[in-house]
Every structure is written in structure tokens, then in C-alpha cells.
């Protein structure tokens, strides 16, 4: 019943209506060029070995600066949305960091 009182407390909140977005539905609809996606996929496949080498080189190097570089590289990979391609290498690197 404690959760019921929490829900009652939360339902008493007053919400302010937000302004309409200036973007409206501009980003909801766009055309996808299959050829462009194929080019991007092939470019990604081409750079995978380079990125893997960069990560494994950082893995074998020692020192404080190397650990910072590893974390930064992994952060960039996550930010770019490509980290899932290198999950095993990232796990090995973090296990030895």
C-alpha cells in the first residue's frame, strides 16, 4: 500500500504544457537511399580492421596514458554507434584496464 500512496502523491503534480517544437515533423519522415546505405556499410567494413587494430594496440600498450586512450576510444565508438561491432575487443580491453 506504500506504493499506492506514492502514486497518489505523484498524481497531484501539476504539469505545464510545453511549447510546440520548432522542428514539427521535419525529422520524422525522410527518404532512404539504399545505394547510400550500401556505400556506408562497405565503408564501415573497410575501416573495421583499422579500428580493431587501434583498440588492440591500446590494449597491449601499458601505462596511465594508454588506459586513458583506451577509455576515450571506447567512448568514441559508443558515441558513434559502432561499439557493437567490437564487443569482444572492448570486453577484453576493459578486463585488462
Automatic annotation (TrEMBL):
> SUPFAM superfamilies recorded for this chain?
Terpenoid cyclases/Protein prenyltransferases
The residues covered by the Terpene synthase N-terminal domain are 22-96
Q: Which InterPro entries match?
A: Isoprenoid_synthase_dom_sf, Terpene_synth_N, Terpene_synth_N_sf, Terpenoid_cyclase/PrenylTrfase
Give the species. Brassica cretica (Mustard)
What's this protein's name?
Terpene synthase N-terminal domain-containing protein
